[in-house]
């Protein structure tokens, strides 16, 4: 039995793991998911949120020996948490996520990609301190291969995303970099280019890079496959 904490990506919440949590429970694992500050049921204004707030929220929800799974932008959040308390973490799992480079922000990483498939779907908030996903673009970038009811459910729950955490550089040390790490590459991702996912993990041991054939939301598109893969990773 492993202990999982699942962390959502931009504009999402703990709700995105609704199909995966029971599947991991059925495999005997202890699993939970949280809303990061300003997401889901958390009422923190997005204007007040920092990357450190994300890390602190994750650590507050964790026990020791946790497999910390971060989707998309949460690659930064879980790495920031690992820098603060690596002793709590058994393994970092990046699910079609940004793998931070020291001294770079998530925005820096995004703009270093060979193409920018998400930019057309983003709309800044009036105050310029957050962004939302345009409703008519959400399916194409996030849910193109998901069941229709899941895509509808997701689009009804999307929220504004704070920009400040994504423009904050992260300095990496052995505290996070020496932890066991796994990556789940999604070959039909329309948000983070699949080829860029492979670039970010180019120097990782091949055994630590896993592959799914779906888009950016495997928790809806292929929850059984994702749960089985997480179960496999937990045994490694």
UniProtKB/TrEMBL annotation:
Residues 4-228 form the AB hydrolase-1 domain. One of its GO terms (molecular function) is methyl jasmonate esterase activity. Gene3D superfamilies: alpha/beta hydrolase. It comes from Litorivita pollutaquae. InterPro entries: AB_hydrolase_1, AB_hydrolase_fold, MES/HNL. Pfam families: Abhydrolase_6. This is Esterase.
């Amino acid at each position: 039995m492993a202990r999982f904490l699942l962390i959502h990506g931009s504009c999402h919440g703990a709700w995105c793991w609704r199909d995966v949590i029971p599947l991991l429970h059925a495999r005997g694992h202890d699993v939970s998911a949280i809303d990061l500050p300003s997401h889901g049921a958390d009422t923190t204004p997005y204007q007040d949120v920092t990357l450190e707030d994300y890390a602190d929220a994750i650590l507050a929800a964790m026990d020791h020996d946790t497999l910390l799974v971060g989707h998309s932008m949460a690659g930064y959040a879980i790495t920031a948490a690992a820098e603060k308390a690596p002793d709590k973490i058994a393994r970092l799992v990046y699910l079609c996520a940004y793998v931070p480079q020291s001294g770079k922000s998530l925005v820096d990483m995004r703009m270093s990609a060979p193409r920018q498939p998400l930019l057309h779907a983003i709309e800044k908030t009036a105050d310029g301190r957050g962004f939302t996903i345009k409703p008519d673009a959400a399916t194409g970038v996030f849910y193109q291969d998901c069941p229709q009811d899941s895509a509808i459910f997701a689009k009804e729950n999307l929220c504004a995303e704070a920009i400040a955490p994504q423009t904050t550089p992260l300095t990496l040390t052995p505290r996070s970099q020496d932890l066991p790490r796994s990556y789940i590459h999604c070959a039909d991702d329309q948000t983070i280019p699949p080829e860029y996912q492979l670039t970010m993990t180019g120097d990782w041991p091949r055994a630590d890079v896993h592959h799914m054939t779906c888009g950016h939301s495997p928790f809806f598109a292929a929850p059984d496959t994702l749960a089985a893969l997480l179960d496999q990773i937990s045994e490694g």
